[in-house]
Amino acid sequence: MTPPGPLRPSPAGMTVIIPVNAQVDLAIVNRLLDDLQPWMAQDAGRVLLVINNYAGDEPPGVAALRARGTSVIMEPRLAVRHGEVPPVAARAVGARQAGSGLLVHLDADVRIPDSPALMRWYRQQYAEGVRVAATAVEFHEVPPGVSIRARIAAHRTARWVKRVIFRTPVTRGSNYATDRDLFLTAYERGMIADELNVGPALVALGARYAYSGDPNLRVLTSARRLRGGWLRLVRYLAYRLAYNVRALPVDDRAANRTRRSRDPRSRWQRPD
C-alpha cells in the first residue's frame, strides 16, 4: 500500500488524531465528531482519523466521515511492533502525516462536554512552551454496580498518586496532547509502546508537562468494557500495579516490558 502524502499544514497548527478501529469504532466515532463540531466551526485545526483493522474494500461509512470535514488515513493492517498497543501505532501513522506541531490525541469512544474550551487550553499550553499535556478523564456509559464504581474510584486514585506523589507525567490514551516531533522521536527510538509511556518519554527528552483538573476541560471515556465483580476488581488492580511498575521506566525498550503481544485479538474488537 502506498502511504498518503503529507497533509498540508493547517493554518492554526493543530491536528486532532483519532485512531478508528473499523471493527467497532466506525459505529460510534460520529458522536465524538458531534462533540468536536463547535470547535471545528470556529478553529482552523484539523481532525485526522486513522481507520484501521479491516480487510477488503473501504469499510462503509468512511465517505460520510470525510464529508464531515475530517481527513482520513486508511490503514487496513497497522504495522504494530511486538509488545506495542495498536492505538499507539495508529497515532504514529497519524503523526507522520500531520502538518502541525501540536497534536491532540483522542480515542474514538470519548465524549467532550466543551471541545472549544479543551482545545483552547491545549493551544495555550503549547504556545507557552508545554510539549506534553493532559486534562482530567472521567467516564460515560458506566455499567451499574458497586464494584464498577469502586474500580472507577481506583482509577482516579491511581492517576492522582502517580501524578502528585510520584510526579509522573500522566497521559491516558483517551485525552492528551503532544509536540509532533518529540512524539515521533520518542516513538521511533522505542520509548513508546503504550499511552502511559508518552508523558515520561517526552519529559525525558526535555518536554515541559502540564495538567489541568478543571471540570470544564474534562474528557469522558467509555466504561462499556468494564465488568462487575469484586474478585475481578482485585485481579485487575494487581495486574495494573504490576503493569505500571514494569512499563513506566523510560528507555528505548518500552515494548519489551509491556507483554501486550499476549493480548487476545478481541481486546481491540467489539466486546460481547
Number of strands: 9
Structure classification = alpha/beta
* CATH fold field value: Spore Coat Polysaccharide Biosynthesis Protein SpsA, Chain A
Question: CATH H level: which superfamily?
Answer: Spore Coat Polysaccharide Biosynthesis Protein SpsA, Chain A
SSE succession? EHEHEHEHEEHEHHEEHH
Using only C-alpha atoms, the radius of gyration works out to: 18 Å
N-to-C terminal Cα separation, in Å?
A: 32 Å
- Principal-axis shape equals globular
Largest sheet: 7 strands, mixed
Q: Which architecture does the CATH hierarchy give at level 2?
A: Alpha-Beta Complex
Strand content: 15-25%
Architecture overview:
- With 272 residues, the protein is α/β, with parallel strands linked by helices.
- The chain has a single domain, classed as Spore Coat Polysaccharide Biosynthesis Protein SpsA, Chain A, CATH 3.90.550.10.
- The chain has nine helices and nine strands.
- The protein has helices at residues 29-40, 62-67, 86-97, 115-127, 146-165, 180-188, 195-204, 230-247, 254-258; strands spanning 14-21, 46-52, 71-75, 102-106, 130-135, 137-140, 175-179, 208-212, 219-222.
- Strands 3-2-1-4-7-5-8 form a seven-stranded mixed sheet, with helices on both faces.
- Strand 2 (46-52), helix 2 (62-67) and strand 3 form a beta-alpha-beta unit.
- The longest helix has 20 residues, at 146-165.
- The radius of gyration is 18 Å and the shape is globular.
- The protein starts with 13 loop residues before the first strand and ends in a 14-residue tail after the last helix.
- Mean pLDDT is 86; it is low at 1-12 and 264-272.
